[in-house]
Amino acid sequence: YKVLIDGTHASILKRFKGVTTTLATVPFQAQGGTMYSLRFRVIGAMLFARVWQVGSPEPQNWMLNVTDTTLTTGQAGVRVLLQRGSIANITTFSVAPATLGNTA
Fold first, then answer.
1. What pLDDT, on the 0 to 100 scale, is given for residue 103?
2. What residues have CB less than 8 Å from 27, skipping those under 6 apart?
3. Collapsed DSSP state (helix, strand, coil) of residue 5
4. Could you give the C-alpha distances from 10 to 4, 56, 77, 100, in angstroms and in order?
5. Has this prediction a pTM greater than 0.85?
6. 58 in Cβ contact with 50 (< 8 Å)
């Protein structure tokens, strides 16, 4: 699973057996020269994501949420693909057991 920001949309994608599927997408107009934060959370089969401009408060609500039961095991990691002239700063990456009551 991954979250993709393509400049006009934010999407949750799944790649399974060589096939990429868009599970959820919402309009998201990213601006050049602007930094964004992204939070992606997976609890069991539930996937959640939100994106917001750096310096703005983190939204309370998830922009994307979907349930997918295809994959039952996996690994966590960060993969960044940048366009020429783009910069990515990874400030936090953590993997921890989570529950629905845990809002972090």
1. 53
2. 8, 9
3. strand
4. 6, 18, 19, 23
5. no
6. yes
Distances from the Cα of 45 to the Cα of 8, 22, 75, angstroms = 26, 15, 14
24-75 pLDDT, tens digit each: 999 999 988 888 999 998 888 899 999 999 999 999 999 999 999 988 777 7
Contact 94, 76 (CB under 8 A): no
Residues 6+ apart with CB under 8 A from 67: 45, 46, 47
Question: How many CB atoms within 10 Å of residue 12?
Answer: 24
Cα(88)–Cα(42) distance, rounded to whole angstroms? 22
What local confidence, expressed as pLDDT, does residue 74 receive?
A: 77
